[in-house]
Prior knowledge:
The chain has helices at residues 2-24, 34-43, 130-144, and strands at residues 45-49, 51-53, 60-65, 68-74, 77-83, 98-99, 105-107, 112-114, 119-128. It has 3 helices and 9 strands; from the N terminus they run H-H-E-E-E-E-E-E-E-E-E-H. The chain has a domain at 34-134.
Amino acid sequence: MRPLKRELWETLAVCAAIALLAGCASGIPLKESQPAVRERYAAYAGEPIRQFNWLGDYYSWEPVAKDELVVFTTPSEAYLLKVWPSCPDLIFLTGPIGLTSTSHTVSAGLDSVRTERMSCPIEEIRKVDYQRMQADLRREAQNKGPPGSGASPQR
């Protein structure tokens, strides 16, 4: 009876390996890694600026590093904010955030990103050319074509 158990475990291990390999070859894209997301935004971020206008509400936000996040003031206007290193790891934030401002202006060195438990002073602000980034991503996706289409990048 003991060899049967061993055969069963071996069969299960082979089935699990096949399922894992099938999942890897399925063509389903994996979620982009956090460093890749950060690098993508940083590539389209301009030089540091002192401040930006803000009407008290934001469209969305996305953590991109332990001390950086992207805040969208509108669906097409984004800012890469770097906070002081003493703040908690922003990657793990799940709740809402807030921004402090003075006279509808968020300023580096003066204002903060507010979390549920902490206020994180903003060290640096960089405007992201989000429209150009989206256009480049669309162009890249078109050049790749759908999986298995045989489309090659245009030059």
